[in-house]
Design a protein that fits this description.
Order of helices and strands: EEHHEEE
Radius of gyration: 13 Å
Largest sheet: 5 strands, antiparallel
Shape: globular
Strand order of the largest sheet: 1-2-5-4-3
Number of helices: 2
Helix content: 10-25%
Amino acid sequence: MTEMTTESSLTTDEQHVTQYNRLDSQPISVAVAEAVAEFCDEEVTELEPLHYAINADALERLFEPRSNGLRSGGSVTFEYNECLVTVTADGEITVESGSLE
């Protein structure tokens, strides 16, 4: 397994933003779990499995490369580990404190 390639990462008390490489062989679900763990200052292994919050296979299919190239727009937002997570088609993962309420 290869390491996640990040182009940039920014963390504040309210938010963690990281850029992931959409062409990397690492699943986006792993990149999401790593981003949440970093924001929450926890080990990835301490987090509840991601599939309890979102269908990880569907998340992978939504943002995987397609036969006509990469998806150019769209995003998905969901709650995970008491955080609000947004994944965008341009390769950004944003983790914030809070919920969808």
